């Protein structure tokens, strides 16, 4: 009985890892598409998967936010990037927080909100300065 339980747990964990790889592979393939409206739609479908890890969900939101930027849909880009910011902050993913801040800087710049753009860029820059410095020393 105990062996069956352990085998079931083991097989379940393997299935989750296989799914994790396939999600990442799907995102990589979707991201290569030239038509960014198709990219956005396919990523939206992936986001409906309740089994996504926080890091997978965050990665998808970042790719989707960039895609909205490429489509010049600043409002949807802002909404998506802000959702990514909340998740990155909640889960304490500092690199992704910096990536989000950089994207927010781009959105704010194109919206003509230069002070907010500068603040977002500065937050991203502070992260990269600190982490580049700690890696080099």
Explain what you see.
This protein has six helices and no strands. The protein has 137 residues and is mainly alpha-helical. The protein has a single domain, classed as Serine Threonine Protein Phosphatase 5, Tetratricopeptide repeat (Alpha Horseshoe), CATH 1.25.40. The longest helix has 30 residues, at 2-31. The chain is globular, with a radius of gyration of 18 Å. It starts with a helix and ends with a helix.
What is this structure's SSE topology?
Elements lengths: L1 H30 L4 H12 L6 H17 L3 H17 L3 H17 L3 H23 L1
Helix pairs in contact: 1-2, 1-3, 2-3, 3-4, 3-5, 4-5, 5-6
Largest β sheet strand count, sense and barrel closure: none
Query: Radius of gyration from the CA trace?
Result: 18 Å
Q: What's the number of structural domains?
A: 1
The level of helicity is over 70%
Q: Please report the first level of CATH classification, the CATH class.
A: Mainly Alpha
Distance between the termini: 54 Å
Protein name: Tetratricopeptide repeat protein
InterPro entries: TPR-like_helical_dom_sf, TPR_rpt
Keywords: Signal, TPR repeat
Organism: Colwellia maritima
């Amino acid at each position: 009985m105990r062996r069956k339980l352990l085998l079931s747990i083991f097989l379940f964990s393997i299935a989750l890892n296989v799914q994790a790889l396939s999600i990442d592979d799907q995102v990589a393939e979707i991201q290569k598409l030239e038509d960014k409206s198709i990219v956005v739609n396919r990523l939206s479908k992936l986001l409906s998967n309740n089994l996504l890890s926080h890091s997978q969900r965050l990665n998808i939101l970042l790719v989707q936010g960039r895609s909205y930027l490429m489509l010049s849909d600043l409002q949807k880009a802002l909404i998506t990037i802000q959702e990514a910011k909340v998740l990155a902050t909640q889960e304490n993913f500092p690199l992704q927080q910096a990536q989000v801040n950089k994207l927010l800087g781009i959105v704010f710049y194109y919206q003509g909100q230069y002070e907010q753009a500068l603040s977002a860029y500065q937050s991203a820059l502070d992260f990269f300065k600190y982490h580049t410095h700690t890696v080099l020393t």
